[in-house]
């Protein structure tokens, strides 16, 4: 027994995380993969890592110092359960099993209870940053017991990305059982929204100004020096600049316009629906990917009528239009994060987690896909007011939207007039206006519900629950709250 940590599952994420761990002072890393060829390849290619390789679970477990700590890096799903049961059968009380896959947090809650019943610790850990992050510094979102974090925390701090502002490692104990995977799920939901918003911005600029992808790449690169600075904006410029070797066309023009998804965005929305949290921007981003992949419907709809006149931006107005789009993007992005944090607040309440929102913003500042300069502003907003009801009302964001909202409205109007789909821009604006509204037509919905189902309503001018006798003399009675 000579390794202080082990990794099970040596596909690219697992291999890279194992190499990252091995490169840090004080770590000796045990590695195991179901098919031993992969283990051999990793060990042969990286002699500098000093891996302790095993070809069986028995050997792997024997190579770990106590308390044993093993990180599972296999595709989320059944494979994870299989590895957990192999480890649980061999581990002893106090040992720690970490699942670093993109697991559904409901599974993590179930697995944590099951593993804990054997006296072991189970940590569901969100790992963000893709292959590059796993190797050089991911953002890590571990859940599980606080006790397990005492052993795990110091190791994770060495491998996590470091925030550029203060060098703080991007890892924190998020909360118990499934909290880490829950927060990773919301991270991915925000990732979907951010990507969709960027895509809408690109589409508007391209269609409105006729600029080439390479020219738009320069615009994104310029945006990346300001308040929008983020990894996703940066890589957008790279993707737009890429030329296809086979055709000489911009790569973005030869990629099939059908977006894939592996499920975490949809989970964010499913859970938001269950929690009653309006994450509309994230939902539109998930649906936009679904729509893009509906080939038959899109083909059948291609000649449905659109606006009578083609839309273009006059050359002299192009710069102002592009600036409008930039502001609309920033405002919508604030909404996406505000909605995401709203889901974290509700999830924490529902599942009994004590999640520090400011800490979450901080550990997303580097390493992860949604890393962005403005996460510092989110961390500050929660530091100023830990019980902030919504990010949009924090003074900084309020001012940011105040400066952007006229542009945002113009862009949504133009897009609607031009027949260019901007589901994320539009729904974010509708959400913002919904929150702002002094009076919502929800009053009418309550009236309708009471009419057809005696669902009752409350009044603005007195306490109590009321029902109008719609099928009788239409007088109002005070009643009990309806149960259906
Ligand atoms: C990350 C990413 C990563 C992956 C997601 C989303 O944080 O490193 O979120 O986990 O990109 O699985 O992938 P899809 O777009 O395929 O759903």
Automatic annotation (TrEMBL):
Single biological process term from Gene Ontology: D-gluconate metabolic process
Molecular-function GO terms, alphabetical: NADP binding; phosphogluconate dehydrogenase (decarboxylating) activity
Listed SUPFAM superfamilies: 6-phosphogluconate dehydrogenase C-terminal domain-like (SSF48179), NAD(P)-binding Rossmann-fold domains (SSF51735)
Active site feature: 184, 191
Record keywords: Gluconate utilization, NADP, Oxidoreductase, Pentose shunt
Pathway named in the protein's UniProt entry: Carbohydrate degradation; pentose phosphate pathway; D-ribulose 5-phosphate from D-glucose 6-phosphate (oxidative stage): step 3/3
Residue positions binding substrate: 102, 128-130, 187-188, 192, 262, 289, 449, 455
Catalytic activities: 6-phospho-D-gluconate + NADP(+) = D-ribulose 5-phosphate + CO2 + NADPH
Domain 6-phosphogluconate dehydrogenase C-terminal: 180-471
Entry superkingdom: Bacteria
Binding-site residues for NADP(+), renumbered to this chain: 9-14, 33-35, 74-76, 102
EC number in record: 1.1.1.44
Segments forming a coiled coil: none
Assembly description: Homodimer.
Family that this chain belongs to: Belongs to the 6-phosphogluconate dehydrogenase family.
Protein purpose: Catalyzes the oxidative decarboxylation of 6-phosphogluconate to ribulose 5-phosphate and CO(2), with concomitant reduction of NADP to NADPH.
The name this protein goes by in its record: 6-phosphogluconate dehydrogenase, decarboxylating
Provenance organism: Agromyces intestinalis
Lineage of the species this protein comes from: Bacteria, Bacillati, Actinomycetota, Actinomycetes, Micrococcales
């Amino acid at each position: 027994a000579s390794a202080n940590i082990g990794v099970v599952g040596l596909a690219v994420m697992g291999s890279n995380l194992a190499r990252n761990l091995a490169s840090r002072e004080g770590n000796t890393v045990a590695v195991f993969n179901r098919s031993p060829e992969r283990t051999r390849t990793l060990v042969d290619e990286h002699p500098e890592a000093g891996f302790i390789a095993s070809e069986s679970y028995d050997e792997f477990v024997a190579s770990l110092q106590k308390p044993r700590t093993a990180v599972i890096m296999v595709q989320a799903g059944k494979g994870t359960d299989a590895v957990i049961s192999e480890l649980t059968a061999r581990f002893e009380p106090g040992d720690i099993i970490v699942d670093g896959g993109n697991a559904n947090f409901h599974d993590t809650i179930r697995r944590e209870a099951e593993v804990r019943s054997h006296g072991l610790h189970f940590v569901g850990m969100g790992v963000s940053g893709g292959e590059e992050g796993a190797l050089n510094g991911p953002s890590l979102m571990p859940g599980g017991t606080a006790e397990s974090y005492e052993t795990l925390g110091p190791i994770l701090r060495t491998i996590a990305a470091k925030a550029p502002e203060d060098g703080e490692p991007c890892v924190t104990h998020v909360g118990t059982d499934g909290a880490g995977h829950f927060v990773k799920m919301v991270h991915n939901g925000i990732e979907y929204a951010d990507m969709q918003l960027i895509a809408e911005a690109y589409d508007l600029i391209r269609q409105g100004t006729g600029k080439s992808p390479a020219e738009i790449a320069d615009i994104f690169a310029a945006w990346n020096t300001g308040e929008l600075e983020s990894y996703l904006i940066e890589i957008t410029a790279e993707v737009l600049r890429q030329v296809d070797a086979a055709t000489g066309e911009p790569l973005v023009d030869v990629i099939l316009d059908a977006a894939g998804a592996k499920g975490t965005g949809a989970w964010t929305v499913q859970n938001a629906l269950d929690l009653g949290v309006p994450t509309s921007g994230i939902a539109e981003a998930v649906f936009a990917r679904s729509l893009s992949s509906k080939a038959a419907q899109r083909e059948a709809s291609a000649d449905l009528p659109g606006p009578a006149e083609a839309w273009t931006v006059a050359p002299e107005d192009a710069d102002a239009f592009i600036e409008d789009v930039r502001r609309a993007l920033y405002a919508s992005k604030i909404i996406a994060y505000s909605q995401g944090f709203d889901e974290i607040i509700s999830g924490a309440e529902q599942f009994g987690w004590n999640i520090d929102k400011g800490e979450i913003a901080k550990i997303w500042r580097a390493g992860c896909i949604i890393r962005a300069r403005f996460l510092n502003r989110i961390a500050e907003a929660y530091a100023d007011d830990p019980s902030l009801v919504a990010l949009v009302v924090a003074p900084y964001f309020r001012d940011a939207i105040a400066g952007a909202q006229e542009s945002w409205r113009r862009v949504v109007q133009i897009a609607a007039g031009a027949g260019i789909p901007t589901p994320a821009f539009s729904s974010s604006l509708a959400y913002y206006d919904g929150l702002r509204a002094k009076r919502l037509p929800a009053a009418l919905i309550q009236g309708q519900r009471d009419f057809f189902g005696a669902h009752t309503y409350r009044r603005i001018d007195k306490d109590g629950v009321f029902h109008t006798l719609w099928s009788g003399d239409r007088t109002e009675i005070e009643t009990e709250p309806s149960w259906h």
